[in-house]
Amino acid sequence: MSRLDARAVAGGTSQTSLIERAARSCVRVIRGRYTRRPAAVLCGPGNNGADGWAIARLLRAADWPVTVYTLTPQKDLTGAAGQVAKGSGLTAEPLRAFRPEAAGLVIDALFGAGLSRPLVGDARGALDSLAEAAVPVVAIDLPSGVDGATGSVLGTAARAEVTVTFHAPKPGHLLSPGLGLRGELVVTDIGLPQDAEPDAHWNGPCLWTLPVPERDTHKYARGAVLVFGGPRIAGGAARLSAHGAARIGAGAVTVASPEEALDIYAAHLDAIMVKPVTDAASAKRLIEASKAKALVIGPGAGRTDATRSHVLAALETRVPIVVDADALTVFEDDPDTLMQALHEKAVLTPHIGEFGRVFPDIQGDKLSMTAAAAARAGTTVLLKGADTVISTPSRVPVINTSGTPWLATAGAGDVLTGAIAGLMAQGLGAHDAACAGAYLHGLAGQRGGRGVTADDLPGLLREAGRAVATR
């Protein structure tokens, strides 16, 4: 944001004008959500604190009882904070005097997205007291203590009921634990340049378009998906992936089954076809015979030599593919072989445990970890979680937050894997299919709510797709 501020100032907009716009947008949000009540405004020494001083002035002008608490003594403030504080006509109390129980609303303007070190002293004390209080908090830009680039907590942070930010969400709003601390996120426009590339996109239908079949289409033109199934006792995962692909719109879905499990798959599947596969050569033949435009391998496959050979055979065909679960873990002792076999039409969909098995040396925050993994793999990596991150070389990373805790249920990830493959089979590229699949999967979980199971998700995926298509 500091880069955008600098560009706006270089273009002729003064820093104080930007602060005034930010403050007015915050006050509109505050007055639109809360009745008049005693407000405590916590101000830091930088531009975030300057926003706080301007907010306090505007609320006082609207007859709100306001008390400003400043981390830096008012007489020692410099820069924008000093200028705005001087023009506010308000006198502040020291931050150490803040008591949350005396306020009906707390406005957190201590530190914004630029915070880079853990909070200590009076700032930490104020936020620790807020964390134990029942008073509502409105955070300006970010809850103080949340790293704007990673979402991590630097020492401590208080949970906000509403966060008002400017221009665009920051990664810290979308990545855990910041995601769980910022409450309702309101993004306001204060006239910053619109052409700047963000650090990450917030996933949604504005980033991709769902495929629509032509009027004279047929099932294979709508997209054929081949799902590699596992042994008799582990076939549920592959069936869930197959249903996910079908319900998101793929026209023909086939499960490639080991011969000893054919009867189990056939007994459970009707609209989805079942074909035998015995070895790598037969896998390649089946990929061609099924007219597959996308493949799924990994869910329930087993950590076996057969799984490993099927993965490498499937990748050799260069058909778009989603590699998940056991198809990743089977390369735990030799991840370089997988990396060398991958191509740009592949999507890897690990959870954090599987990620560590194939990228054991990549650590850090989730955004940088996923970007590093995608660069190494040369293709799209989707790192699952409450804050799913999708990264593709030469593309802006995407953070998906449509998920819900109700999706923490066995088999949900298998449905996501199938959904991504189903979208790839219908013509979406790897990156867009991963983004759209993650978003719709999250909406399906929201619609299912309490008690949703993976068996429910394919039908809910269909409803989510319809809802997005009609917006």
TrEMBL record:
Record organism: Parvularcula dongshanensis
Cofactor note: Binds 1 potassium ion per subunit.
Amino-acid positions noted as binding AMP in the UniProt annotation, renumbered to this chain: 384-388, 413
Identification of the protein by name: Bifunctional NAD(P)H-hydrate repair enzyme
Enzyme Commission number(s): 4.2.1.136, 5.1.99.6
PANTHER family xrefs: ATP-DEPENDENT (S)-NAD(P)H-HYDRATE DEHYDRATASE (PTHR12592:SF0), ATP-DEPENDENT (S)-NAD(P)H-HYDRATE DEHYDRATASE FAMILY MEMBER (PTHR12592)
Similarity annotation: In the N-terminal section; belongs to the NnrE/AIBP family.
UniProt keyword annotation of Isomerase present: yes
Physiological role: Bifunctional enzyme that catalyzes the epimerization of the S- and R-forms of NAD(P)HX and the dehydration of the S-form of NAD(P)HX at the expense of ADP, which is converted to AMP. This allows the repair of both epimers of NAD(P)HX, a damaged form of NAD(P)H that is a result of enzymatic or heat-dependent hydration.
Source lineage: Bacteria, Pseudomonadati, Pseudomonadota, Alphaproteobacteria, Parvularculales
Domain YjeF C-terminal span(s) in chain numbering: 202-468
GO biological process, one term: metabolite repair
Reaction(s) the record says it catalyses: (6R)-NADPHX = (6S)-NADPHX; (6S)-NADPHX + ADP = AMP + phosphate + NADPH + H(+); (6S)-NADHX + ADP = AMP + phosphate + NADH + H(+); (6R)-NADHX = (6S)-NADHX
HAMAP family cross-referenced by the UniProt entry: NADHX_dehydratase (MF_01965), NADHX_epimerase (MF_01966)
Subunit structure: Homotetramer.
Annotated binding of (6S)-NADPHX, by residue: 47-51, 112-118, 141, 237, 300, 351, 414
Gene3D superfamilies registered for this protein in UniProt: 3.40.1190.20, YjeF N-terminal domain (3.40.50.10260)
YjeF N-terminal domain mapped to chain residues: 1-198
Keyword Nucleus: no
Domain of life: Bacteria
MF term (GO), any: NAD(P)HX epimerase activity
InterPro entries cross-referenced by the UniProt entry: Carbohydrate_kinase_pred_CS (IPR017953), CARKD (IPR000631), Nnr (IPR030677), Ribokinase-like (IPR029056), YjeF_N_dom (IPR004443), YjeF_N_dom_sf (IPR036652)
